[in-house]
Design goal:
mainly alpha; Arc Repressor Mutant, subunit A; Tetracycline Repressor, domain 2; 2 domains; elongated
């Protein structure tokens, strides 16, 4: 049974395996991913890989988890800036920042996002949803008029989960029907129309 890394050296080995797997997946596609090829790129023996991962599918899980962790690390420091913007600009800025992350290293993350959700056995999206919920809460604290939006918690849940699914679905499509920028504009408009429209219905100005 694979062991959980405890020592710093073991953690570094696992990190190098995941990084190597991302390189292989991005450059070779799923058909080119084998544990031996991952081990070769990581510069270790295949036996060392099996010390930490039982099979290729567990490596895919680790890739997806890494993608989510890095997305959270991108969003967290942006929150103070995002809460000062209008809702539309906040959503659009957030999505475009995530796009920048995905395009790093010649689009390696983007290619992995296209494959990993379909290959992974687990769905580690909870940390991403948690940080987006934190962003929503801090935004409402900064703009308390939005507390008057009916069913705010329900609408927040729908936008966070629906938006996450929509973005992943778009990125996983090699020939999407619109550009990412158009998708970002559409999602930003949708959230703004719902929130600001609810305030207008109640005679409250969105500031």
């Amino acid at each position: 049974m694979p062991r959980k890394p405890q020592q710093q050296r073991a953690k570094a080995t696992v990190a190098s395996i995941v990084e190597a797997a991302m390189i292989v997946l991005a450059t070779q596609g799923p058909k080119g991913v084998t544990t031996r090829r991952i081990a070769d790129v990581a510069g270790i023996g295949v036996g060392s890989l099996y010390e930490y991962f039982e099979n290729r599918e567990q490596v895919y899980d680790a890739i997806f988890e890494r993608l989510v962790q890095d997305a959270v690390k991108t969003i967290q420091p942006l929150i103070p800036e995002l809460v000062r913007l209008s809702i539309r600009e906040a959503v659009r800025t957030l999505l475009l920042k995530l796009r920048e992350l995905l395009m790093e290293n010649d689009g390696r993350y983007l290619m992995c996002v296209r494959y990993a959700p379909h290959l992974a056995q687990r769905n580690p999206l909870d940390p991403l949803r948690k940080v987006l919920t934190e962003l929503l809460m801090q935004y409402v604290m900064r703009h308390p008029q939005y507390m008057q939006v009916p069913n705010l918690a329900t609408m927040g849940y729908i936008h966070i989960h629906g938006g996450t699914f929509t973005v992943i679905r778009h990125l996983a499509d090699p020939t999407p029907p619109m550009t990412f920028e158009e998708l970002a504009d559409g999602l930003a408009d949708m959230v703004a129309y719902c929130a600001d429209g609810a305030l207008r219905d109640r005679g409250v100005a969105a500031r």
